[in-house]
Input
Amino acid sequence: MNIKANKILWEDIFKKLKSEKRTKMDFLRSIPFFQRLKSHQLEEVSNVLHERIYEPGEYIFEAQQPGASLFLIQEGTVSIEAPLEDEKIVQLALLKDRSFFGELALLDETPRSASAKAVVRTRVWALFRNDLQKLCHSRPDIACEIYKILANMVGERLKSTNKLLNGQEAVKAAS
Amino acid sequence: MTFNRQQRALIFKGFAFLCSIGLLIFLVIALKKLIFPMIVGALLAYLCRPLLNLFRYHWLPEGIRLFILMVSFVGFLFVATWVVRSNLPNEAELLELSTRIQYKLNEKSAQYFEISKPKNEKSFISKVLEEQFAPFVQDLNHFVSLNEAQEKQFLGYYQRGLILEKYYQYFLKNKDYKESDSKREVSSTLVDGNKKAFQLSRIMGVFEVWIITPLVFLFMLFDKGNFSRYWVRLIPNRYFELTLTVFEQVNLAIGKYLRGTLLECLCVGLSMFLGLFLIGIDLQAAFLIAMIAGLANAIPFLGTAVGLVVGVAYAMIAEDVSPILPFLKQDDLLIAVIAVMTIVHFLDNAVFQPMIVGHAVNLHPVIVILGILGGSLMFGFSGVLLAIPTIVVVKVFIETLSKGLKDYQII
Output
């Protein structure tokens, strides 16, 4: 009887651990940031992620603080906000499950340009910049892929900002 | 008086924090003996981690990788132990060394204390020397003298031709000295009996305590960050990024300091070995002295003194020295040893330290001396060894934390 009970207990524990790991891997696979990574590479990345849970209204980070991590939302909603000069706050975006933010912190320690606040109870995974730098030595293939994605993303943003500026200049010239 | 949920959480956290601090202090005091072996295991893991990172191939299954690493680790330990043991004196050599040390000690002390002269004819210096150092010399003499069983062993080795005639003569003279001091003989027999029992229990005690070192070493070496991630989970969200940054900075500083110090010790040991070999000290002794001086170099100031004492002590008992450098004579050995120590010390300060350790951990000499003295008073020899790494950790931690707290607008 005891042996049977023990077996069920251990099976339950291992099943739970396995299902937690599978859920985490499925979640990582669904994020565009990691879509190019293979399963074994994703597993390495999952080993360096930190899980955090934020309550509604709690700041994940605030503008002007030094950036250190990229955040991936597993479940919940995060509001990206920028403070204005007259102490008012403007909402720049509302991010939901499987979104990510704070990616520029992976490049350097430049202060955050906006704040991130949890709107509801939110579970996020954080990738710390120094862990990514360590991956450069231990698993350069993974770090290289992540930096490539990051470079593409920054490039795309630069292009769209240029487009926006050009459009505004054209409007000014026409008026 | 009622509290809201936030206040209750704050009270609970404060209470838990105080309890944890109390528990930590209690554990540090209760497990004082285990702390040093644990720290040694952790530091070794720190040093070896970069090697482990070189061996991370994703195509190699985890189990096989760990197996190869474990086999290599055990193999390395086996080879290192074998090399050290083969360079350490065997039983006959140890008995011979004790006899030589005792003989030379008696010879030199008789010379410096002018024992052959009557008291009123002795010079002032020899009187002062005798007054100050005679009890120490007698203790040292007692420490290196052979007991009855060892004397029998010595004679056995001599009859088998494993010990030279010259050392047998030393042995006889030491025996004469021993017989002339019958009081000392009685006390030494008593001490010898107790010494054996004491040594056995001490060896068992050391084994029990140091068994933790390889366990901590392997655990820390193969941990994939789960241990640190568990502790980071307990940190409040507000301090999460700050904590990671501070941890990382401290981690980098410790790694840099430890690897730098190890490399510096290696350079000091190698240069000393080369120097001692050039002035004619035989390979085995040069290796031992260089190893002791190199390891002791990890302790600032004290390391140089330890190297000097061991080197000078050997120079005083050394015989049949044939220096490789042509301008050196056998009688100059003591001066040559001091010269080698001085050159190596200069090399260490001018070349090794700035090039290897750099100014990453700039500590004021007063802090270093106070740290070593404080460490020695609180934790004995382990305190001396760990004082500087601990000061480095605290210094980097406070510097990084205060900068981080300002950057994150917490203070």
Observations:
- The radius of gyration of chain A is 20 Å.
